[in-house]
């Protein structure tokens, strides 16, 4: 019986943790949603990366393509795109 209670407690605990995690994920999602939506719009062939041609529909991105493409494979991954979005605020020259 004791073991059963322990099992229940463990299950409850796991659920609570998972719940917490999904809440945190949602918060993070909403703050990243704009760039994610934009990325999906730009990624016309849906291969989860932006080719130069796909990036061309966005002037700013197209102009900064080689800079945003941090691993220089000729494609922008979602991560590279999101990083560029985050650093794309008014840039002060250093
Ligand atoms: Ca693509
Ligand atoms: Ca890349």
TrEMBL record:
Transmembrane stretches, start-end: none
InterPro entries per the UniProt record, alphabetical: EF-hand-dom_pair, EF_Hand_1_Ca_BS, EF_hand_dom
Lineage of source species: Bacteria, Pseudomonadati, Pseudomonadota, Gammaproteobacteria, Steroidobacterales
Sections of the chain in a coiled coil: none
Protein keywords: Signal
Stretches with biased composition (Basic and acidic residues): 20-47
The protein, known as: EF-hand domain-containing protein
Pfam families according to UniProt: EF-hand_5
Signal peptide: 1-18
């Amino acid at each position: 019986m004791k073991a059963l209670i322990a099992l229940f407690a463990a299950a409850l605990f796991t659920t609570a943790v998972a719940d917490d995690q999904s809440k945190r994920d949602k918060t993070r999602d909403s703050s990243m949603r704009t760039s994610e939506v934009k990325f999906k719009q730009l990624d016309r062939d849906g291969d989860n990366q932006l080719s130069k041609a796909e990036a061309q529909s966005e002037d700013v991105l197209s102009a900064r393509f080689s800079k945003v493409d941090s691993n220089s494979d000729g494609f922008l991954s979602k991560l590279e795109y999101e990083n560029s979005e985050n650093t794309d605020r008014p840039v002060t020259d250093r």
